[in-house]
Design goal:
This protein is mainly beta and about 300 residues long. It is built from three helices and 26 strands. It has one domain: Hemopexin. The radius of gyration is 19 Å and the shape is globular. The protein binds calcium ion (4 copies).
Length: about 300
């Protein structure tokens, strides 16, 4: 959907919600009825009055409702720098420093991906087993429809499956070997993505399209982006589009770097641009941060 049109729909939804006191669920072309954008900042932010720390992920319904994913509570000084929701309710994340879970039974370094499933922690990706050098930070995680993990790192790596990946590239892990999934700077764009960029958040989209954020401002293919923005990269074009401009939703994002993201999943509602009134939906759910904000999603007051 045209980005301007989508922005108008969201604004209209907000206005209707304010005027009528009726929360609206928006389904837009290419997006599902789950309109939430999950994103983590690199600093503490206030989004619609909800404080979001860098070790948390904000689940933003884009209509003023913010829920928090706190991963069961991470220690002071820790930071979440990669995030992905699996289809079964579990979540994947990576931290910026070494963190222990389950009383030390699970120790995750910055090069690892942790799985949190119904309160149980495990390593979904063990960087040292996969040959990732110590000191490397994994800064993006997603999963392709085929089941392989998609990863990004903060430095150039030799890949066990052959070749190398730069920090702006995406790497595929099939459970055995690492291979290049996206060589961003090789795309025939004018101007191209520069080698000085670092992808610091990634989400695999349908059709071989990638949603990525960078750790700096930049431009490619005629699109200028900030570090809190998410752009869609279609290698088949190739083309670049600005998909999520976080600071237009919450101005406070302009001072932060968005360092983990997951966009809404496309679904049966794709192609429909409509607001569906769901009386009481917001009042039942998406309560502002409650006493236990960990994994607070839609029933935080129950
Ligand atoms: Ca973060
Ligand atoms: Ca990490
Ligand atoms: Ca990276
Ligand atoms: Ca970013």
């Amino acid at each position: 959907m045209d980005r301007v049109l989508r922005s108008r729909i969201f604004r209209a939804a907000r206005a209707a919600s304010v005027l009528g006191g009726v929360p609206l669920l928006i389904a837009t072309m290419g997006e599902s009825s789950r309109a939430d954008v999950a994103a983590s900042p690199d600093i503490t932010l206030s989004l619609s009055g909800v404080v979001v720390e860098d070790r948390e992920v904000a689940i933003d319904d884009l209509m003023g409702g913010i829920a928090l994913e706190g991963f069961g509570g991470l220690p002071d000084g820790s930071e979440v720098d990669a995030y992905h929701e699996e289809g079964d309710g579990s979540v994947l994340f990576s931290t910026g420093t070494t963190v222990s879970f389950s009383g030390g039974a699970v120790v995750a370094g910055p090069e690892d991906v942790v799985k949190l499933d119904a309160g149980a922690y495990s390593l979904e990706f063990d960087g040292s087993v996969a040959g990732i050098p110590s000191g490397t930070n994994l800064d993006g995680v997603s999963r392709e429809a085929g089941g392989d993990l998609i990863l990004s790192f903060d430095t150039t790596l030799a890949l066990s499956g052959g070749g190398a990946a730069d920090d702006e590239d995406l790497v595929r892990y099939d459970g055995v070997a690492l291979s290049l999934a996206l060589d961003l700077s090789s795309l025939a764009l004018v101007p191209p993505f520069g080698p000085g960029l670092d992808v610091d958040a990634a989400d695999a989209r349908p059709g071989g399209v990638w949603a990525v954020s960078f750790d700096t401002t930049g431009s490619a293919g005629g699109v200028t982006f900030d570090d809190e923005d998410v752009v869609l990269v279609d290698p088949g074009g190739p083309s670049v589009t600005l998909d999520f401009d976080a600071s237009t939703v919450h101005a406070s994002w302009s001072g932060a770097d968005l360092d983990a993201v997951m966009l809404p999943e496309p679904g049966p509602w794709a192609g429909v641009a409509a607001g569906i009134a769901l009386l009481g939906w917001r009042s039942r759910g998406l309560r502002r941060a409650g006493p236990d904000r960990s994994r607070c999603r839609y029933r935080c007051d129950s």
